């Protein structure tokens, strides 16, 4: 049985990259698929050369060719990690963890009420502190990722999910502020109700960051390490 040489496999990879496929995982997947298909055709007696068979295989991928595969894998990977994020976050709102969550909300509300308007700067630092921790950790990850020249779909997925988790909480805070402006309500933390509402948002942010840094990040790092071991 005629098999592909190392140079021919590299030629297949170069062909895939020339079609704007940019992620290592997808390049490897398509390389394996095309190599198997071409070797199968050769085993069936097809005597056409590699370039011809490669072009024929490419045409079989439909209107958007390899890009449709890339887009599909991007969505699939994002859904996988987003599901992991929400599943982990949801566990905090089941018994007995919900008791701890309520206690955290009440504690933060009490602190906000105590700090109040007299120490606006401290209030802002307190509200932003979880986000500062998040960005510090994210910046460290970004520096490490830059050291690896190979472009990974997994890296993009991790960045997207972490950004999504923070954006969701930003929307929550924005809805609170816009709602207050709409009904001409004060944007202070003088009342217990205001403090509880803001404390709920801060707690949600803390939980989201906790899930991101303690569940999503380790999973991502383990999967990334496995992928990097396959890169020559």
How many whole angstroms does the radius of gyration measure? Answer: 25 Å
Q: Given the structure, what is the number of helices?
A: 8
The percent range for strand residues is under 5%
Order of helices and strands: HHHHHHHH
Show unreliable segments: none
Provide the residue-averaged pLDDT: 85
Helix content: over 70%
From the structure provided, what is the oligomeric state, counting identical versus distinct chains? Answer: single chain
Distance between the termini: 27 Å
- Main sheet properties: none
What is the count of β-strands?
0
Number of domains: 2
Shape: elongated
Structural class: mainly alpha
Which features would summarize this protein structure in a list?
232 residues, mainly alpha, 8 helices, 79% helix
Secondary structure blueprint with pairings:
Layout: H1 6-18, H2 24-43, H3 50-59, H4 65-90, H5 97-115, H6 120-146, H7 153-182, H8 192-229
Helix pairs in contact: 1-2, 4-7, 4-8, 5-8, 6-8, 7-8
What does this structure look like?
By secondary structure, the protein is mainly α. It folds into two domains: 6-60, no CATH class; 73-229, no CATH class. 79% of the residues lie in helices and 0% in strands. It has eight helices and no strands. The protein has helices at 6-18, 24-43, 50-59, 65-90, 97-115, 120-146, 153-182, 192-229. Helix 4 (65-90) packs across helix 7, helix 4 (65-90) crosses helix 8 (192-229) and helix 6 (120-146) runs parallel beside helix 8 (192-229). The longest helix is centred in the last third of the chain and has 38 residues, at 192-229. The protein starts with 5 loop residues before the first helix and ends with a helix. The mean pLDDT is 85.
């Amino acid at each position: 049985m005629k098999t592909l040489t190392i140079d021919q496999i590299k030629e297949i990879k170069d062909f895939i990259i020339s079609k704007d496929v940019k992620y290592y995982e997808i390049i490897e997947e398509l390389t394996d698929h095309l190599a198997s298909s071409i070797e199968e055709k050769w085993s069936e007696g097809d005597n056409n050369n590699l370039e011809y068979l490669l072009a024929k295989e490419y045409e079989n991928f439909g209107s958007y060719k390899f890009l449709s595969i890339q887009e599909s894998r991007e969505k699939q990977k994002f859904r996988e990690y987003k599901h992991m994020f929400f599943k982990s976050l949801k566990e905090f709102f089941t018994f007995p963890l919900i008791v701890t969550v309520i206690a955290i909300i009440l504690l933060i509300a009490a602190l906000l009420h105590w700090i109040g308007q007299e120490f606006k700067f401290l209030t802002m630092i307190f509200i932003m502190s979880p986000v500062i921790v998040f960005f510090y950790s994210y910046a460290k990850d970004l520096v490490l990722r830059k050291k690896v020249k190979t472009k990974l779909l997994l890296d993009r997925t991790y960045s997207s999910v972490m950004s999504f988790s923070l954006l969701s909480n930003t929307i929550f805070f924005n809805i609170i502020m816009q709602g207050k402006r709409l009904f001409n309500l004060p944007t202070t933390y003088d009342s217990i109700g205001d403090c509880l509402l803001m404390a709920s948002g801060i707690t949600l942010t803390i939980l989201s960051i906790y899930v991101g840094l303690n569940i999503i990040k380790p999973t991502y790092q383990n999967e990334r390490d496995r992928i990097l071991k396959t890169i020559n």
